[in-house]
Design a protein that fits this description.
It is a single chain. This protein folds into 2 domains: 141 residues, Peroxidase, domain 1 (Orthogonal Bundle), CATH 1.10.520.10; 146 residues, Orthogonal Bundle (Peroxidase, domain 2). Helices cover 45% and strands 3% of the residues. It has 13 helices and 4 strands. Strands 1-4 form a two-stranded antiparallel sheet. Strands 2-3 form a two-stranded antiparallel ribbon.
Length: 310
């Protein structure tokens, strides 16, 4: 507040402009808060580009396929540096930007105050991302264990999975769903995904059936046409309705129905969208507080893609 007045307004202006042009950039930012903070804490390690000294940074990890919005964060960082050089970390900017994206994609229903004062990390390793992030192929037991390592509960696992109301997934992340049995995925939706995934080496599909193109839905699940959304990538509790109908992209989504406590929470959030808005906001705050490893060195990067040269 004192050393860089108005920084949050600068971030919000850029995020709003980007989302107006393409709502997918908002979904990309929401994904980044998770993919950054679950690996070495919220230290912007996910933003570092590979270099000859470190060719395998986090963003090169297979589990980070399709991460985006890096250019947008570069633009925001440049604007912030212009205003107050050397004061605001990329880590803080990422949190502010993801917070604003979640708010804008939900029409303000997801909202929270984000604390600042993080430092940017100087380490970034693809192997750590592979080890710390949950995979779309995980079973419920693996998901629960993965979240527990970061001190997140089964309830918070279910809450954060709700982010799959927006954004896209790669066919390579949902291959197993194309042959999954009818009790795990609606056969008509399986057919829709199979058709789309046959169209190239690794196409993307909307995470939310409600964002599918009308043609694909008309050909496979015509009864679902009235539920398609006019505004795509709207962040709400529709993920839980989709999940109960067995119309979700990833195995890790469907797995939430296979354990009693998790399944109870899926029903709870399907029934109460306002509760999810509040609990998702709280879970993002908790994510945003994940610390760097004990004793880590940090800095304020000049550019988000590279560590400073000392």
């Amino acid at each position: 507040d004192k050393s860089c007045r108005g920084v949050e307004n600068v971030v919000k202006w850029h995020v709003a402009r980007a989302i107006k042009a393409n709502r997918k950039s908002g979904a990309a930012l929401v994904r980044l808060i998770f993919h950054d903070c679950f690996v070495r804490g919220c230290d912007a390690s996910v933003l570092l580009d590979p270099t000859p000294e470190n060719p395998h940074t986090e963003k090169t990890a297979p589990i980070n396929i399709g991460l985006a919005a890096f250019d947008l964060l570069d633009d925001i960082k440049a604007a912030v540096e212009d205003r107050c050089p050397g004061v605001v970390s990329c880590a803080d900017i990422l949190i502010f930007a993801a917070r604003d994206a979640a708010s804008l994609l939900s029409n303000g229903h997801v909202h929270f105050d984000a604390l600042a004062g993080r430092l940017d990390g100087v380490h970034s390793h693809a192997a750590e991302a592979q080890q710390d992030l949950p995979d779309s192929t995980f079973t419920i037991a693996e998901l629960i264990q993965n979240f527990k390592r970061k001190n997140f509960t089964i309830e918070e696992l279910v809450i954060l999975s709700g982010a799959h109301a927006v954004g896209v997934g790669h066919c390579s992340s949902l291959r197993a769903r194309l042959t999954a049995p009818a009790d795990q995925i609606l056969p008509a939706y399986r057919g829709l995904l199979a058709g789309k995934c046959a169209k190239g080496p690794d196409p993307i599909v909307p995470n939310n059936i409600r964002d599918e193109d009308a043609g694909a839905v008309a050909a496979t699940i015509p009864g679902f046409l009235p539920k398609l959304r006019k505004v795509k990538d709207f962040l709400d509790n529709s993920y839980y309705h989709n999940n109960l109908a067995r119309i979700v992209t990833f195995n890790s989504d469907w797995q939430l129905l296979t354990e009693k406590e998790a399944r109870g929470h899926v029903h709870e959030y399907a029934d109460n969208g306002t509760l999810w808005d509040e609990d998702f906001s709280d879970s993002l705050v908790k994510l945003s507080k994940l610390p760097m490893p004990h004793g880590s060195k940090g800095e304020i990067r000049k550019m988000c893609r590279f560590v400073n040269h000392h």
